[in-house]
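Write out this protein's structure.
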Amino acid sequence: MNELWVKNGLVFTDEGFREVNIRVIEERIDSLVKNEGEPWKEESDTMIDASGCLVVPGFIDAHVHFNDPGRTDWEGIETGSRAAAIGGTTTIFDMPLNCAPSVTNFKSLQDKKKYLTTMSSIDYALWGGMTDTNIKNRHDLSQMSEGIIGWKAFMSESGIEDFKFVSPDGLKQAMKAAKEHGKILALHAEWDEEINKLTALYKNRAGMNERKAFLASRPISTEEKAVCYALELAAKYGTALHFVHISSAKIVGLIEQAKKSGVDVTVETCPHYLIFDEKDFLEKGAILKCAPPLRPREEVEGLWDCIQKGWIDTIGSDHSPCLYSMKTTDSIWDAWGGIQGVQYTWLSLLDEALKRGIDLGEILQLGTSNVAERFGIANRKGQIRPGLDADLVLIRLDESTVADKQSLAFRNAYSPYENKEFLLRIKKTILRGKVIYDDQFGVMKEKLGVCL
């Protein structure tokens, strides 16, 4: 019997932070035992001294693009999962696009599952893609639904040739199919027609700064129109809906109203919408290009208000890497839209919460229990309690982390978080009872991640 004790830490439980010791047997948490007597302060193969550390559940990132198979020169699950582990993430859900081919049929799903075996440092699940080209193939979608965490669709161009967006009519079919399969439908919600019109209006406007033109081509109204339409359909068909990377407090408010009216809907935002703003984009350019784009500072503050109101359900990194050359194009319009951030999701958010005086418990649940409950894995992940996987992260608040070039674990070593200092440090990341990352020794070479 393999046994591990994590002792002397301040442990985040469903009752808040508690001074308890964690007993792990095999891969699961066996019990939480009140810390009594003299603290034990010697590391061994069966005991970890967590003195001075917060011990929190391993983070679950429901939104990454690791581009494997097919575009491993952009990232790959080996480097992506390594970076995630360094950042305290123990489970990711990999999106169905940016790999090649995209996961839009049963064969591509099976091939991807087979390919990824033994390659990940952390546990993972896979999204399946719904597009205008596959939504009528009911048999194939039904087969896929058994092996995915949920469905993902775009309401605007995805930037990937073999992952077409769903038209307004196509979204009705996608809603029906997701409901039929009992799966969540996650949406990139921007209204394609409006984006196209505004792009044509601003792209070549004489005397207009290109970066300002890009921002003008994707205003909040493009999100609002898409979200309102999708909410109407979700209410009509009873579909479980999850909006990804919402960038505006106004849109979060609309989703909150729908929740209260009975729509089965949740909302995600991303660290870059909570840390950076449009001035940063105007200054730094393509390294901060994403869609929806970064918003004015008042929207950043509005999103933090929404978090404190409990209106935002999950945080996802939307880690969307590419070659550095794809960010250094002559025109902002040609640059890849995506941000490399999975290594710094929780460092940046917890750092920002501490600076704002926000209770860390309000932030932690957005990447742990909330995600696990929404996506049906709460019987294994998301909390520190007996019976669940022993996915744990040890964090010190009296040490800092500098995101220097040498510490970047992505395949392509660049990030908008580079040179930032975070006033906390991840000391260890534990996956199912095994230390997979230690800040002194790095990431474990053995790949322990499994497909959920």
